[in-house]
Structures are given as structure tokens and as C-alpha cells.
Amino acid sequence: MFILYRSQVSAQSVFLFLIRSCSSNMADLWQNAMDHAVAAARRAGQVVREALQDDRKVMTKSSSVDLVTQTDQKVEQLIIQSVREKFPKHRFIGEESVAAGEPCVLTDGPTWIIDPIDGTTNFVHAFPFVAVSIGFSVNKQMEFGVVYSCLEDKMYTAKRGKGAFCNGEPLQVSNQEDIKQSIIATEFGSSRDPEAVDKIFSSLRNILCIPVHGVRGAGTAAINMCLVASGCVEAYYEIGIHVWDVAAGSLIVSEAGGVLMDVEGGEVDLMSRRVVAANSRTIGERIVKQIDSFSPPRDDASSLHKH
Amino acid sequence: MADLWQNAMDHAVAAARRAGQVVREALQDDRKVMTKSSSVDLVTQTDQKVEQLIIQSVREKFPKHRFIGEESVAAGEPCVLTDGPTWIIDPIDGTTNFVHAFPFVAVSIGFSVNKQMEFGVVYSCLEDKMYTAKRGKGAFCNGEPLQVSNQEDIKQSIIATEFGSSRDPEAVDKIFSSLRNILCIPVHGVRGAGTAAINMCLVASGCVEAYYEIGIHVWDVAAGSLIVSEAGGVLMDVEGGEVDLMSRRVVAANSRTIGERIVKQIDSFSPPRDDASSL
């Protein structure tokens, strides 16, 4: 946006003014978007906390343990509507929208990647880790990430190149390089397909018996990634997550000094349903060696059935 | 007599709170780590310091009382439960978490008379949650009453458990087979806070329907066991019989239904008892 000045200025200075105001507006635009995301996440967290006072009616999606509630759907709508009012040209990848049939494709355009409630199973049981996750990508690159752990009132944020924070305090990954002194986070996920469960258990056993100090799971990918960024665990890995679970967290991890990779060691691909987030390449690669990998259907595969 | 135990309980709560403060301060510094029964069974100077603080403060007030403390037992004290008033102390439950600053670390103080728990205190010091229970008087967290979940359908439940610190392949085999059996019932999910005491408080709070583990010690579960039962829950052995806090095995559940269903899936084994006389 610019204002056309009716004044006696040279064409060149007008040109320079326009260029400068466009680029500073661009950075301002993402900061505005980020501020909006933080506010939206906070409001969503309030809705989640209030919903915990009432009974939570539970439905299922891809399996009997892949849960969703009306709160998930309501919160996603709230976020999308509020963003559309302010940023009408932006695109969305939202967990519940995709479940309802919206496409799940990442373009170069500014895109909000939303998980309204990461940790729905925890939410249903009032287990203390429930997060609102909002990631923002432009040109297929994460520009900012917001994860609000709403029962702990912890607002995790990161802006590309500007570091990662929790409630304003800077985050730094652990400096532990010895795998035998590490805690690893992972989850069983919601697939009960015996082949997948076989591989999940075999990876888990391999890792436990390195031996590591311990294996933990918060029950939400977004919060597991924030635990890596906070230095509480050295790495988190999982096969079966979705892009909306890890988009925001991935930037929070890298801005806290951590690394992301695929479970087979290559470059991470947020649509591949697989992720390793670690404090260092050393730990990440050591974990990768122990993972019995497999390939769930990609998030961006066009299909009728989402698993 | 009732007043005496109330004084003891008030003392336990105050001691747990002070201990939690010591733990939080220690988290500001580096934590030098030693090992006990295996390379993943950790202990720090803070564990030892906190246990000493609690025992000393109790001895001043209650000179005739006995103690079973994790670090004292590690140092050679006997681990035998008599009829006398006995303080059962885990100065830091979740030492691995403490070393990593993972958010669940608890001070656990149980008090037994005539081999029966009279009160239990579990202070989750990084969350500042003080869980308490007095026999017959209910269970509380920061003064709010606790109630187990009313979920009776195992397929709608979350179960808590841990891998423990044994890496012995036979034990690991059984731990994994139980875990897989339970996950594939299917339950909604399996979680672990990394500390037995807090896992038991999660049962009492209604956040999980049950917690089971083989390999825990009496000091991990003494306080939590009363908190669970006073919140309306039940305790049993992993083979379904009566719980035995010295047996290294426990199931804590919101109901007998859920507890018995879990027990069916557990591939049980028997670690050396806490009260087995040894070297």
C-alpha cells in the first residue's frame, strides 16, 4: 500500500520511496500476520480452556483412536475467519478443513498452516498438554511459527532469523552430544495397523536400548517439538504426523538452534508425514540409524481417504 | 493420636515445599549426574541433599519415627516396613527428568503406621502442584478435591506407564509386550510423565484412567497410593491380587473394571523385592 503524494518531487525519489515502502511493508506485513497469529492462538486457547469445563463429545476420523471434537472444528473456523478478514488473499491448510475435503497443497502464496487442537486425545482426557499450532509459510518457506500450550499458558513463537521464545524468554536447544545421556520424545500415533505398530515398536526398542536416559511423549507433536527447542529433550521423532502438527514447531526448533531431518536422514519434507527434530546433527543422525522407517500416505497426495 | 498425624502431615507438606524450592534452585546450575543400579538409573547430589534435609527436620520433631528413604537405602540402610510410624521418602522422583529439566519432578513423602498409609504428600515442584491425602479425608491438589475419571470403557482410556531403568533384555521384552497388548486393545493412548508419583496423581486427577509399572520402588508409590485411593481409585498387583508396595509392582486405576482389564494384558515378572534382605 502507498499514498500518492501530490507534490513537486522527482520521479526518481518517488520510485525509491515506492520500493522502500513496499519492502518495509512486506516485513511489516509478516509481523502484522504474526501478531495476529499470536492473538488468535491466545483466544483459541481460551476457548479450549472453557470447553474443558464442559463434557467433551468425541467423534473419530481415520481410526477409532483418531479423535476430533466440536471444539477442534470451532477453533479452526474462528482462526480462519479472523485471518480472512485481515488478509483476504492468504491461503489455508487447516486440519479440520482438510478432513472436510479442502485440498492440502502448499503453494508459494502466503499460507496459514493450522492445527486448532494438537493433542485432541489429551484434551478429551484433560491431560495437561494441549496446543494451538499456527505456522505461516511464503514461497514454501516457514516465516513464523506459533504454538500455544494453552493449559500451561506457554506461548512459543519464532520468526525466521529472529530466534525462538517461550513467553518472551529465548529458547536454546540442549548442548548434549552424547546419545547415552539423552531423552528422546516420540509417540505411538493413531495408526493401529499391525505393520505400522511393528515398526514403531522396533524403532522405540532400538532407541531405548542404546541406551538413552529415557523416552517421553507429551501426546502432541507441536509440544514435543517445543520441548526440543527448550532443551528438555534432545530429539523428537515420529512417523504419522501431519504438516499442520509440525509446521510451526519446525521453525521454533531451528530458530532455537536445532535441526530437522527426515527419518531416513535426508532433508525434512513437512508433507511426508515423517519428522526428526534434534538439538544437533550428531544426535539426529544417531536416532535415524535406529528408526525402522515406513511411508504413510503423504499429506499432499490427492486422495479421497486420509489416513 | 489423630492430631499427632495431622502435625506430622503439616510437617510433611512444609518439608516437601522446602525441598521443591531446593530442586528449583538446583535447576539453575549444572547438575552432576551419577548412576546406581544401571547406566540409566540416575542420582544427583540434590537427591541426597534433599533426603537429608527432610530426614533431619523430621527427626528433630519426631525423634522416635522411622525412615525408608531412597538414598539412605542406596547407602545401606535397611528397607523394612514395621508397625512403627514410618516416613517413606523419595526426595526426587523423576531424577532423569530433573537432569534434563523435563517438567515433571516430584518430592514424595508417605507416612505409614501399622503398615497402613496414614497420609501421602506428592509435590510436583516445577508445576507447583501440592497433592495430598489423609486416610479417610479425601485427596486434594492445591486444596482442590481430586476425583478419578468415571470412564469404564477401556477403549476410551489413556493409560500411563514407563519403561523404567532396567535394560535387561528379558525385562525389556516383557515391558514391550505388555505395552503393545495395551496399546492395541486399542486404548486412546499411552502416556508417561517420567515419575511414578506424578503418574499416580494423574490417575487421582482423572487425567488418565490407570497407571501400571513393574520395577518401581516403595518410595515411588507409597504416597501416591493413598492419593489414588482417597480420590476414589483402586490399587492392585499386576497379576490382579492385592497390591504389595514392597513387591516392585503396581497398578493404580480409576476402577476395578479398568484395573482388571489392564492386568489381563500385562506380561508380568518379579524384580527383587524392596524388603529382600541383601548384602
UniProtKB/TrEMBL annotation, chain B:
<feature type="binding site">
    <location>
        <position position="92"/>
    </location>
    <ligand>
        <name>Mg(2+) 1</name>
    </ligand>
</feature>
<feature type="binding site">
    <location>
        <position position="90"/>
    </location>
    <ligand>
        <name>Mg(2+) 2</name>
    </ligand>
</feature>
<keyword id="KW-0378">Hydrolase</keyword>
<feature type="binding site">
    <location>
        <position position="70"/>
    </location>
    <ligand>
        <name>Mg(2+) 1</name>
    </ligand>
</feature>
<dbReference type="GO" id="GO:0005737">
    <property type="term" value="C:cytoplasm"/>
</dbReference>
<dbReference type="InterPro" id="IPR020583">
    <property type="entry name" value="Inositol_monoP_metal-BS"/>
</dbReference>
<dbReference type="Pfam" id="PF00459">
    <property type="entry name" value="Inositol_P"/>
</dbReference>
<dbReference type="InterPro" id="IPR033942">
    <property type="entry name" value="IMPase"/>
</dbReference>
<protein>
    <recommendedName>
        <fullName>Inositol-1-monophosphatase</fullName>
        <ecNumber>3.1.3.25</ecNumber>
    </recommendedName>
</protein>
<dbReference type="InterPro" id="IPR020552">
    <property type="entry name" value="Inositol_monoPase_Li-sen"/>
</dbReference>
<keyword id="KW-0479">Metal-binding</keyword>
<dbReference type="GO" id="GO:0008934">
    <property type="term" value="F:inositol monophosphate 1-phosphatase activity"/>
</dbReference>
<keyword id="KW-0460">Magnesium</keyword>
<feature type="binding site">
    <location>
        <position position="220"/>
    </location>
    <ligand>
        <name>Mg(2+) 2</name>
    </ligand>
</feature>
<keyword id="KW-0963">Cytoplasm</keyword>
<dbReference type="GO" id="GO:0007165">
    <property type="term" value="P:signal transduction"/>
</dbReference>
<keyword id="KW-0452">Lithium</keyword>
<dbReference type="GO" id="GO:0046872">
    <property type="term" value="F:metal ion binding"/>
</dbReference>
<comment type="subunit">
    <text>Homodimer.</text>
</comment>
<dbReference type="InterPro" id="IPR000760">
    <property type="entry name" value="Inositol_monophosphatase-like"/>
</dbReference>
<comment type="pathway">
    <text>Polyol metabolism; myo-inositol biosynthesis; myo-inositol from D-glucose 6-phosphate: step 2/2.</text>
</comment>
<feature type="binding site">
    <location>
        <position position="93"/>
    </location>
    <ligand>
        <name>Mg(2+) 2</name>
    </ligand>
</feature>
<dbReference type="GO" id="GO:0046854">
    <property type="term" value="P:phosphatidylinositol phosphate biosynthetic process"/>
</dbReference>
<dbReference type="GO" id="GO:0006020">
    <property type="term" value="P:inositol metabolic process"/>
</dbReference>
<dbReference type="InterPro" id="IPR020550">
    <property type="entry name" value="Inositol_monophosphatase_CS"/>
</dbReference>
<comment type="similarity">
    <text>Belongs to the inositol monophosphatase superfamily.</text>
</comment>
